[in-house]
């Protein structure tokens, strides 16, 4: 019975050994230079067990075409450093370098995304994001392009709003609405979130006596008051989407190339109808007012045509004409002679 038990345990021991090796090799590659003590602590092993595994790694590899192990077919370590200073340094890797890697451009794009995530209030300065960015830099096929994600909001307004949220105090500010008017607002902050590059505060507006959404880059002179935010009904629930339909919304009919229709996905277009051969499509958007179309037309200049209602079409035409007039004024302005 003892012999049978020992034979049965042999596959389990071999499997454990293989699992350790498969975990140890990537760890050593990632660390670059690490002591036996550090490895033993990381894997919860004895120092002697780590030394045995490292010696086994040096006997591992992939045979060449002749099915024999030749120079370069095995892992290798810096033996003087290992035997003298008890430190592990891999000097030759087998097969690992042949695995697919991110290109420099792919790594740069991922790093840029992680930089953006690190700016989110809940993720700021986390060690996990910093560690992942470092790993992407080391593991790319070439050094990634240095990318810095510019933030439209300098951070001051967001910090003030975040402070109001964490302390559950009211926040007040002057707000420039989409119509160009400026009003003083007193708000009970409920949530701060971002969509693309824009940050928004969702809270109970005491001026409107309802939940409203505010863009942070349209706030000026924000400050946290010394008044705790009001108590609201328990059934006050923030909707899942930032913007909600209203009875005063305007239905705007647009026409654009069918291939560009996905660009309007965030606006939730309705009643899409193909035009002619189907190369162009007409669809309907619900907007709070005609002035909200200015930003849409700016982002899709030359692509979107506003069809109706006439008021919306005229608002966009007037806005475009005003912009064009600025260029005309610059051309007519006399220049000073040198």
From TrEMBL:
<dbReference type="InterPro" id="IPR051534">
    <property type="entry name" value="CBASS_pafABC_assoc_protein"/>
</dbReference>
<dbReference type="Pfam" id="PF19187">
    <property type="entry name" value="HTH_PafC"/>
</dbReference>
<feature type="domain" description="WCX">
    <location>
        <begin position="249"/>
        <end position="322"/>
    </location>
</feature>
<dbReference type="InterPro" id="IPR028349">
    <property type="entry name" value="PafC-like"/>
</dbReference>
<dbReference type="InterPro" id="IPR026881">
    <property type="entry name" value="WYL_dom"/>
</dbReference>
<feature type="domain" description="WYL">
    <location>
        <begin position="159"/>
        <end position="224"/>
    </location>
</feature>
<dbReference type="InterPro" id="IPR043839">
    <property type="entry name" value="PafC_HTH"/>
</dbReference>
<feature type="domain" description="PafC HTH">
    <location>
        <begin position="16"/>
        <end position="138"/>
    </location>
</feature>
<protein>
    <submittedName>
        <fullName>WYL domain-containing protein</fullName>
    </submittedName>
</protein>
<dbReference type="Pfam" id="PF25583">
    <property type="entry name" value="WCX"/>
</dbReference>
<dbReference type="Pfam" id="PF13280">
    <property type="entry name" value="WYL"/>
</dbReference>
<dbReference type="InterPro" id="IPR057727">
    <property type="entry name" value="WCX_dom"/>
</dbReference>
């Amino acid at each position: 019975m003892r012999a049978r038990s020992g034979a049965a345990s042999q596959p389990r021991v071999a499997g454990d050994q293989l699992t350790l090796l498969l975990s140890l090799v990537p760890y050593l590659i990632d660390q670059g230079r690490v002591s036996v003590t550090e490895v033993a602590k990381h894997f919860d092993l004895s120092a002697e067990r780590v030394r045995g595994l490292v010696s086994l790694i040096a006997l591992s590899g992939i045979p060449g075409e002749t099915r024999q192990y030749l120079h370069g077919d095995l892992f290798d370590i810096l033996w003087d450093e290992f035997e003298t200073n008890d430190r592990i340094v891999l000097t030759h890797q087998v097969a690992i370098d042949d695995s697919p890697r991110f290109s420099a451009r792919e790594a740069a794009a991922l790093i840029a995304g992680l930089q953006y995530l690190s700016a989110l209030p809940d993720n700021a300065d986390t060690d996990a994001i910093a560690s992942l960015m470092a790993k992407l830099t080391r593991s790319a096929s070439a050094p990634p392009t240095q990318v810095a994600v510019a933030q439209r909001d300098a951070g001051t307004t967001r910090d003030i709003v975040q402070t109001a949220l964490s302390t559950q105090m009211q926040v007040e500010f002057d707000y420039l609405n989409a119509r160009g008017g400026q009003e003083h607002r007193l708000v009970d902050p409920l949530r701060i979130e971002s969509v693309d590059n824009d940050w928004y505060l969702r809270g109970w507006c005491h001026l409107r006596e309802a939940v409203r959404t505010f863009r942070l880059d349209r706030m000026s002179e924000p400050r946290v008051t010394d008044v705790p935010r009001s108590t609201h009904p328990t059934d006050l629930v923030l909707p899942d989407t930032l913007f909600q339909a209203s009875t005063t919304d305007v239905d705007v009919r647009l026409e654009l190339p069918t291939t560009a229709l996905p660009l309007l996905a965030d606006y939730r277009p309705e009643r899409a109808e193909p035009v002619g051969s189907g190369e162009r499509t007409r669809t309907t958007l619900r907007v709070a007012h005609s002035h909200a179309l200015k930003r849409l037309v700016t982002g899709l200049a030359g692509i979107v045509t506003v069809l109706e209602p006439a008021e919306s079409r005229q608002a966009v035409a007037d806005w475009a004409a005003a912009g064009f007039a600025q260029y005309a004024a610059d051309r007519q302005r006399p220049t000073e002679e040198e």
